[in-house]
Write a structure and sequence with these properties.
Elements (H helix, E strand, L loop, with lengths): L3 E3 L6 E4 L2 E3 L5 E7 L12 H14 L3 E10 L2 E11 L6 E10 L4 E9 L6 H10 L1 H4 L31 H12 L4 E2 L1 H4 L7
Antiparallel strand pairs: 1-9, 2-3, 3-4, 4-8, 5-6, 6-7, 7-8
Length: about 200
Amino acid sequence: MTPITALDLTGFTAREPGVWTDQQGLVLSVHFFPLVPDLPARLDGPERLRAGLARGVARADGGLIEAELGRVDGVPAVRQLVKVPRPGGHGQVFLGSWTVPKAGCSTVLKVQAAEGATTGMREAMVMARVGPADYFRPHPYDPGAGGGLPYHVGDHEEWDAQFPDHPLTLVRTALRRITPTVTLDERFKALPPFGG
């Protein structure tokens, strides 16, 4: 089903093949896509890649919080943190993912969590500290981009410690913990690299 052959599932309960949940409301899933990855640029062009990702997420009415290059089990990959409007309700859903692209396919590890009944507390408290003028900023990856959810400093990692139960904090923490435990199938690792 996926080239991910092992990962640390401590605290998670299986819901269906490839999907797990925990008591904090996190949803962890693994995916395999037997298609050329739809990344907007090669991994060795981080500026183009980040700008293209920011535009793509904005077109889908979301907001790219951050995109970083790294490795999953030694294989080049891109990590994204994204926020999207919660379907059929108020608030947002936060998604963290690693996409491990190859020339003709990719595998994705995704963690997501939605805001509950109370929304906007983190944003309001951070805005009160930094002031409205310094809260909203042009997107660092694509300053001229419009549309989607706005980019703001309330999503920065520096605030996570003050909001340990916020879904964005939970997603970041889970992704950071799980990623080093991922093992990929050696046949997948040997496939030709993604060329963009």
